[in-house]
Structures are given as C-alpha cells and as structure tokens.
Amino acid sequence: MLNNVGGVDRGIRIVLGIALLVLGFLHVVTGTFAIVAYIVGAVALVTGLVRFCPAWSIFGINTRSAEQK
Q: Is residue 66's pLDDT more than 70?
C-alpha cells in the first residue's frame, strides 16, 4: 500500500474528520445527518492518519509532492 495523500490533503482530512465527529458527539447534528457525519468523519480521519485513500488510487490521483515520493 503506497501513500497517496500529501501533507496539505492529510491535514485537511484530519481536521475535517475530527470536526465532523465532534459535531456528531455534541449533538449539533442529529438523526441521519449525525450518522453521515460519523461515517464521513471516521473515513476522513483514518485516511488522513494512514496517508492512503482507496478512492484516490482508483482514480490515479496522488497528492504527495515530488519530494515525498
């Protein structure tokens, strides 16, 4: 499994993931929106932490800079 998530992309994913999870846990969003926030937040957080996104690999996208490769 090669890393395909770069630094800026990784930071955005981690911040977005944490924000969505917090919105769900604090009941800012409820019902179906909370479930979606949990799922999207968890996926964004995990892909940011492991630096690999399956969707990016399917479409051939790589956001790592040339220095990181």
A: no
* Cβ proximity of 8 and 57 under 8 Å: no
62 phi and psi angles, rounded to 5 deg: -140, 115
Annotate 19-65 with DSSP letters as a single string: HHHHHHHTTSS-THHHHHHHHHHHHHHHHHHHT--HHHHHHT-----
| Tokens linked to 8 | 């800026």
Q: How much is the pTM?
A: 0.88
Residue 67 has pLDDT above 70, yes or no: no
7's enclosing H/E stretch is helix 7-25
What are the residue ranges spanned by the domains of the chain?
Answer: 26-51
**Amino acid code (one letter) for 43:** V
